[in-house]
Design brief:
Strand order of the largest sheet: 1-2
Helix content: 40-55%
Structural class: mainly alpha
Number of strands: 4
Order of helices and strands: HHHHHEHHHHHHHHHEHHHEHHHEHHHH
Number of domains: 2
Shape: globular
């Protein structure tokens, strides 16, 4: 931090250091539990920012402010420590008084789709949206580790038991001891999140890549990365969209040759790719808002001037940029005047812009008609299903096969496959190979049966052997996500939701071609209404296509509370993740036996 302060006092030339490389360390002193130590760091930051304001017209100060202002703005509203929020709020006011143009925050809350969560959760006064002490403690852990409580983490805070398990897994993969270098981990995460055009996750991982001293040239795109990373592109593409096509021979080029991975490195890479594919489903499924300090999370000037240009339909996608085969000029998007970063072109208040871009409206009905649909509520469905006798022991093989095929069927769903390709943000196209490759429905005649290859008996022990403790940590998370319940449906208490949770999990794995021998798939079509099946299928297979209209139209009619909507997407996340892992490690096990 001293270089930032002394740089202006001593007339340091702007070419003497890299503003972006210096940026992360500027705030590191805040990663403290001790309030007195944080106070010392805050005072040093305050003095430095004050000097920048006094020299705002000098080129060095101007560039320093360009780099740091978005983070200053974020810390003024998003920190678990009140002293940090207060101090940075005062700094923002000081800079404004000095005549510095300070950006405005585009979205105060973590989600645009879940309206109860579209507010600043750190100062929420509404008892409905207040977080409990255990979540706040986990937010502190996240802040100390990352100097941020990401908006994805904020949403998961409504399920503290799961969040604790999630953070343990995430930190194990991305920050713990492991065979892959830290820059490799974060770049693999960028490649994985890019498959679903999830700018939200890519933006965070680009920052972390640089914080881990990653080569800035790699962020120019795939033409600038080592061959070892390029070798993962096909595996990444298949796992994201058609994991059942991963075969043993794919691992030959990955495990043999001068740019090969060790078995431990490859296991680590597979875990990161699948982790970020599934996280993309969650972020896009919940409409997670951009981080305030990302280019899409703040804006300069009049927001109303940006609105007419375009609306991407999902804030986690970021700004419109290029499709897979065409370019968009600067005139097609809005740019913030200070740093020339594209502003996110959506007004979270003007919801009339949130209409689907891909003809995924439900039977052409209006938004209000969809929300007031005639489908039975989830509560009524669960009460009805609870008296139906499901006994796989009494079913014939033919009837079980038929029920599985019918559970997979898309012929009666409102959403089957995107009519138009998703628009790829300009800053992501560089990370994509074969960008038009997407989900195709698997043939139901040859499912992967858990009697042949299961998580418990095969993938879990193999993972623990190749990458110690990873299998155990993931198994704990899968089990918690599958069993987590509060016995509520909306305002109704003491409701047994086991049939619903089990149907969601098994339906997601069924459309990925995985069949559980001890499950009667009649339950899927009995418990899950068509609209809801359409939505969770989109989350698992085409998350980049989801708009707020899809979310509201296909999930609202169930009568779920806002935290339960988050819970649904958590189940989809974990079921999808496990499915990808089963295919990846089945193929790897076959290769190892050759």
């Amino acid at each position: 931090m001293a270089t930032f302060l002394s740089g202006l006092e001593n007339g340091l030339d702007e070419t003497d250091f890299d503003f972006h490389d210096e940026a992360p360390s500027f705030f590191y002193g805040l990663k403290q539990r001790d309030k007195d130590k944080r106070a010392q760091a805050l005072e040093q930051i305050r003095k430095t920012v004050e000097i920048w304001g006094q020299h705002k017209d000098e080129e060095t100060a101007k560039k320093l402010l360009t780099v740091q202002l978005p983070t200053i703005l974020r810390l003024s509203v998003e920190s678990p420590f009140e002293d940090v929020r207060t101090a940075f709020t005062k700094m923002v006011a000081t800079l404004k008084e000095a005549g510095v143009t300070v950006p405005d925050i585009l979205h105060l809350g973590p989600s645009s789709f879940i309206r109860e969560c579209n507010k600043n959760l750190f100062v929420a006064e509404d008892p409905l949206t207040q977080l409990d002490a255990s979540s706040t403690a986990l937010f502190v852990e996240a802040f100390i580790n990352q100097l941020r409580v990401s908006r994805l983490i904020q949403l998961l805070g409504y399920h503290p038991k799961y969040l604790q398990c999630f953070l343990r897994t995430h930190n194990f993969l991305m920050r713990g001891d492991g065979p892959l270098s830290y820059p490799f981990r974060h770049y693999i995460a960028i490649m994985a999140a890019s498959r679903h055009r999830c700018s939200y996750l890519v933006s965070i991982q680009e920052k972390e890549f640089l914080e881990q001293k990653g080569n800035r040239d790699w962020l120019q795109g795939l033409d600038h990365i080592p061959q070892k990373l390029r070798n993962l592109l096909t595996l990444n593409k298949l796992l994201a969209h058609q994991p059942w096509k991963v075969q043993a021979d794919l691992f030959k080029d990955l495990l043999i040759g001068p740019e090969s991975f060790s078995l431990g490195e490859l296991a680590h890479a597979i875990l990161i790719m699948t982790h970020y594919h599934a996280l993309s489903s969650f972020a896009l499924g919940c409409g997670v808002n951009p981080e305030i300090d990302s280019p899409q999370g703040h804006y300069y000037g009049d927001l109303s001037l940006l609105i007419p240009f375009c609306y991407q339909g999902n804030p986690a996608l970021g700004v419109i940029g290029t499709t897979s085969d065409s370019e968009v000029t600067d005139s097609d998007v809005g740019f913030s005047p200070l740093n020339s970063s594209p502003g996110y072109l959506v007004n979270s208040i003007d919801k009339h812009f949130a209409m689907p871009l891909n003809n995924t409206s439900i039977n052409g009905s209006s938004f209000n008609n969809v929300c007031n649909g005639t489908e039975s509520s989830l509560l009524h469905t669960l009460k009805t299903v609870s008296v139906i006798n499901f006994d796989p022991e009494l079913e014939t093989k033919e009837s079980m096969d038929r029920e599985f095929r019918e559970s997979q069927s898309v012929c009666d769903l409102d959403f089957k496959k995107p009519i138009t390709p998703v628009v790829t943000p300009q800053d992501l196209i560089k990370y994509l190979e074969d960008p038009n490759y997407s989900h195709e429905d698997i043939e139901s005649t040859s499912p992967l049966k858990d009697g042949e290859y299961s998580w418990e008996d095969h993938a879990y022990p193999l993972l623990d052997r190749l990458y110690p403790d990873s299998g155990y940590i993931l198994d704990e998370k899968f089990t918690l996500a599958y069993n987590l319940t509060y016995h509520n449906v909306g305002e109704h208490k003491n409701v047994d939701t086991e049939n619903f949770r089990r149907a969601v999990w098994n339906y997601i794995q069924a459309i990925k071609g995985i069949r559980h021998d001890d499950y009667n798939y009649r339950e899927v079509n009995s418990v899950l209404v068509k609209r809801f099946k359409s939505y969770i299928r989109m989350v698992a297979c085409y998350p980049e296509q989801i708009t707020e209209f899809d979310f509201s139209g296909q999930i609202e009619s169930l009568g779920l509370g806002f935290s339960e909507k988050i819970h649904v997407n958590m189940i989809v996340l974990e079921a999808r993740l496990q499915a990808e892992l089963l295919y990846a490690f089945r193929a790897l096990m076959k290769y190892m036996k050759q």
